Amino acid sequence: MIKIISALFVFISFIYSDSIKRNYTFIDDGIYINDILPNEKRIKLFDVKNNISRFNIKAFSLMKKLKENNISIHNINKISNIVFNRKNNFDDTIIKDLLKNKFLKKYEDIEIESINIRPLKNINMANMFVREIVIAPYALNRNKGSFKTIFDFEDKQKTIFYNFNILATLSGIKLTKDISREEVFSPSNTKSTRVNFSSTTKPLNKLPPYTVSSKNLRRNHTLTEFDIKKEYLVRKNSHLEVELSLDGIEITSYFQALENGYINQNIKIRNISSKKIRLAKVIGKSKVALR
After folding, report:
1. Where are the domains of the chain?
2. This prediction's pTM
């Protein structure tokens, strides 16, 4: 009686109640039992050539192979066909490095913490060698997107598309207080910081000279190109003193600005005495040089 119970226990232990799935992955030269049942021994059921990335098996064929190894699965008849996709065990370090270099070339201040890549389809990459990666310029403005990798394979080239996700930071400038429209940026209202790299507008890592706020901004806001504008160093209708040299004699003439002017911009000014209009270049705050 004890022997009968022991034998029955052994038999039951080989019957799996878990459902067989329609899709599995494999990484070696065939389909093994532990590709299907992870806790079982690594015993080969089917041979698969290295150039095969997808392997279809009829359910009854799989059931037969499993039974030969004393394993039964009660609900395998519910599935007619089972698909095995070869898992990509290719060392993708070189692809990640090439992608990383693309970002480093575009952003000199970027600090990359990690890059994850995933091919859009499973493929056996044995005997394939990376030639180059190709990524659209706009894709480098985002922390996730896609690119293609070109491989050399058996005297020909093969292209595989990848998705990527990058975790990184960029240098940025953050406001330390609220500022008003056309307020001048200075060390008293800004500070340098690190900003997460994302798909939104990239932060400014330095302020161009003679720039002011283009709108009201709140404290802790990270500045972008849309938050700044050039500062008018010369205002329309303002009076200007212009130093002139005539025959070695320095004289001062007084002009009126006829338009607003940025740094290095040419504007029209009018001599207050003669009413003559001249062209002048803005060289500083309320300063111009006659052209």
Report:
1. 2-86, 93-168, 169-230, 239-290
2. 0.58
- N-terminal to C-terminal alpha carbon distance within the chain: 115
Determine the residue type at 95.
I
State residue 202's pLDDT score: 86
What is the tens place of the pLDDT at every residue in 181-209? Answer: 989 898 999 999 999 998 777 899 888 88
Closest CA to 51 of 148, 155, 162, 154: 154
E-state strands within the chain: 15-16, 23-26, 30-32, 44-47, 54-58, 72-73, 81-86, 111-119, 129-134, 144-153, 156-175, 190-196, 211-213, 228-230, 239-246, 249-257, 266-271, 277-284, 287-290
- Placement of tokens 């338009």 in the chain: 259
Q: Where are the alpha helices (DSSP H) in 134-210?
A: none
Domain 169-230 has CATH 3.90.1210.10: yes
Extract the tokens encoding 131. 């030639």
- Give the pLDDT confidence of 139-187 residue by residue, as tens digits: 999 999 999 999 887 778 889 999 999 999 999 999 999 999 989 898 9
Angle at 114 between CA 110 and CA 115, to 5 degrees: 95
* Contact of 195 with 169, CB cutoff 8 Å: yes
pLDDT of residue 19: 63
Identity of the highest mean pLDDT range in 14-28, 68-82, 87-101: 87-101
Distance of alpha carbon 260 from alpha carbon 232, whole angstroms: 6
**Identical fold, 169-230 and 239-290:** no
Class of the 239-290 domain? Answer: mainly beta
